[in-house]
Amino acid sequence: MKRLKSVLIAFSMYSAIPMPRTEWEPEGMRYALCAFPLVGLAVAAALWCWGRLCLLLGLGRLLAAVGMTLLPLLVTGGIHMDGLCDAADAIASRQGPEKRLEILRDPRTGAFGVMAVCGVLLLTCALWDTLLPGLDARSFGVVCLGFILSRALSGMAVATFPLAKESGLVHTFATGADKRGVALVDGGLAALAGLGMTLLAPVPGCCALLGASLALLHYSLVCRDFGGTTGDLAGYFLTLCETGVLLGVTLGQAVSW
């Protein structure tokens, strides 16, 4: 029952999938971040179903690519893209930590946030459009595992990185978590996802892991400028990580040809 509560809390917070109402009690919060990668599994399942539907109905490549781009937003409710938008404005300000955190709290969207979101969506759609014609089941599996990897790394980071604020969702999840347990579980899941990616398709898998690793390195450097991580920065990382995985698979498949 305790583990089920953790899963329900993770899905109710990080997805738009309807879930039974669950109180955020301490016993459920302890391992909610361990269940976070399961949301990635739901995203991967949605992409697989869309891919099968496109093949069945003979839908055009561009429409398939647009669906692959938008489905993760529909499953997650766009919570991570919202973090990208806010973080882009704060990072582009080139101000000190306090001013950056103030910009993160501002509900208004700035020009840099809009440009970042549009850029990521366009890049993602273009990568899918490039990838789909020669996409095999193994490379598609690498992309799907990337959604699990990104969330495992994000949960591990929340449990191990310093916090920039004494409030907010990340603070709630981090302070309520068994940090050592979360770090071990999410770290183990990240390692298993990475291993699966390299075994499924060695070249695309390794390129995807490189993209995810660069995103994680960038995330750690950005957190230094903010004095720690926040919910928006966690969403910023997750979006960049998934984009990096997709870019890596696309380049890796091109090299394989």
Protein architecture, described:
The protein is mainly alpha-helical and 257 residues long. Helix content is 81%, strand content 0%. It is built from 12 helices and no strands. The mean pLDDT is 90.
| Net shape | globular
* Uncertain stretches: none
Question: What distance separates the N and C termini?
Answer: 49 Å
> Helix count?
12
For the report, how would you describe the main beta sheet?
A: none
Specify the structural class.
Answer: mainly alpha
By DSSP, the count of extended strands is 0
Element pattern in H and E: HHHHHHHHHHHH
Radius of gyration: 18 Å
Q: How many domain units?
A: 1
Secondary structure: helix percent: over 70%
Quaternary arrangement of the chains shown?
single chain
- Mean pLDDT score: 90
Beta-strand content estimate: under 5%
Topology:
Blueprint: H1 2-14, H2 26-29, H3 32-57, H4 61-76, H5 79-93, H6 97-105, H7 111-131, H8 137-160, H9 169-176, H10 179-200, H11 202-226, H12 231-256
Short summary:
The protein has 257 residues and is mostly helical. It has one domain (76-256).
